[in-house]
Amino acid sequence: MARASQRTHRDLASIGEHVRNWRKIHGLTAQLVADRAGITRTTLRSIENGTGTASLENTLAVLRVLGVADAVVGATDPLTTEIGRFHAERTLPQRVRIPG
């Protein structure tokens, strides 16, 4: 596995801090969030500490419990950006035809 860049480490730490802050804003204990997300407290701790060892599936489960998963998923949609829409219009086919 490739070594993560310093920027990646900073981003993981920021996301972890945001997750922890969302949990506290909702007044939820770490154990309660872990239970609702179907993960261990250790896994939640790794997400909140930004270690980068938690799977994307587990991270999304936590974000869903905290009510922010849709916003995070939406933020990755290229069609929400001007450049993404520009490139999509140029490269995505207008129709798909069944051969034959």
From TrEMBL:
Record-annotated HTH cro/C1-type domain positions: 19-72
Source superkingdom: Bacteria
InterPro entries on file: Cro/C1-type_HTH, Lambda_DNA-bd_dom_sf
Membrane-spanning residues: none
Protein name (Swiss-Prot/TrEMBL): Helix-turn-helix domain-containing protein
Organism: Myceligenerans indicum
